[in-house]
From TrEMBL:
It comes from Gasterosteus aculeatus aculeatus. Residues 1-18 form the signal peptide. Pfam families: V-set. This is Ig-like domain-containing protein. GO terms for molecular function: transmembrane signaling receptor activity. Keywords: Membrane, Signal, Transmembrane.
Length: 306
């Protein structure tokens, strides 16, 4: 009889809670003196309600740490992503006093609602952590996140807040391929491939009963081809020009050697951060092309570089 009543209470609680009963943060290991950002889920009907972080072991007696309708402080900050329906709270300068908190939503026509999470503050190495809590990647690309843990970590999973989880060795979350590699000592690596715009959001490294939140932002890779600059030279005096075109994130033309006729003139960009060797010769040339090492670089006309 007792079990039946308890089950009814749990089911009713999930119906009236402002928060989704889906995957969320409940236990996080953190290092003293550091900071942590915790994502809090809420249901769509509370999109425009006030959200807050409440500090204390008991819900009925906890005190406001920060609210979305008030200013942030040096210790606490809060932001609300109404599209993802997740508000994020950040606690800075962690101490042994930062243990018990509640994600809370103000209910206009009834009692406020919330769910708890616990911070386990340690002066040593955290039981579960990542190198960077904020990660960025490009649309269509991939990203690998290392979840560091202590020995005997329990079941290892990669979860999306409010969605689903993947266990070793592979699976998918919302159409994005996920693989988990546990071969490294005290670390499991999560790789997501074929990233989409909707892959952006909060994820969790999960090890046993511990979670560590990671926010991923996926953006389009910028097209930097328009930032090529054209090297302007006095054409009739150029005999040889070695150019290296770097086509990675920063695109620019690098000039390493120029040969010109004595008495002539040449113009080289003035923002170069490397040496340029200038060789003066007596013989003019009417070459209209840069000379490249053919096995490495393609031949480019001087006016193609716009």
């Amino acid at each position: 009889m007792f079990c039946y009543v308890l089950l009814v209470l749990v089911l009713c609680a999930e119906e009236i809670f402002a928060f989704s009963p889906a995957i969320r943060v409940s236990e996080v290991s953190v290092k003293a003196g550091g900071s942590i950002s915790i994502p809090c889920l809420y249901s769509s009907q509370y999109t425009n309600h006030v959200k807050y972080l409440c500090k204390g072991y008991y819900w009925n007696y906890c005190t406001f740490a920060v609210r979305t309708d008030q200013k942030n402080s040096a210790k606490f900050s809060i932001s609300d992503d109404k599209i993802q329906r997740i508000f994020t709270v950040t606690v800075n300068e962690l101490t042994n006093d930062d243990l018990y908190y509640w994600c809370g939503v103000e209910i206009n026509d009834g009692a406020d609602d919330g769910y708890p999470f616990h911070l386990s503050v340690t002066t040593g190495t955290s039981s579960l952590y990542v190198d960077n809590q904020e990660e960025k990647a490009f649309l269509g690309g991939e990203i690998t996140i290392k979840c560091h843990h202590q020995s005997n970590p329990g079941e290892m999973r990669w979860c999306r807040m409010g969605s689903s989880c993947v266990t070793q060795p592979s699976g998918s979350i919302n159409g994005t391929e996920v693989t988990i590699d546990t071969n490294g000592p005290n670390v499991f690596s999560v790789t997501m491939r074929g990233l989409k715009t909707e892959s952006s959001g909060w994820y969790l490294c999960v090890s046993g009963n511990l979670q560590f939140p990671v926010r991923l932002t996926v953006t389009e890779q910028p097209n930097t081809s328009k930032y090529y600059t054209c090297l302007k030279v006095t054409q009739e005096y150029v005999s040889e020009l070695h150019v290296i075109l770097l086509c990675e994130r920063e695109m620019f033309i690098r000039v390493s050697e120029v040969s010109v006729k004595a008495g002539g003139s040449i113009s080289i960009p003035g923002n170069l951060q490397f040496p340029v060797r200038l060789t003066v010769t007596e013989q003019p040339t009417t070459s209209k092309y840069y000379n490249y090492k053919r096995e490495t670089y393609r031949l480019m006309n001087v006016c193609e570089c716009q």
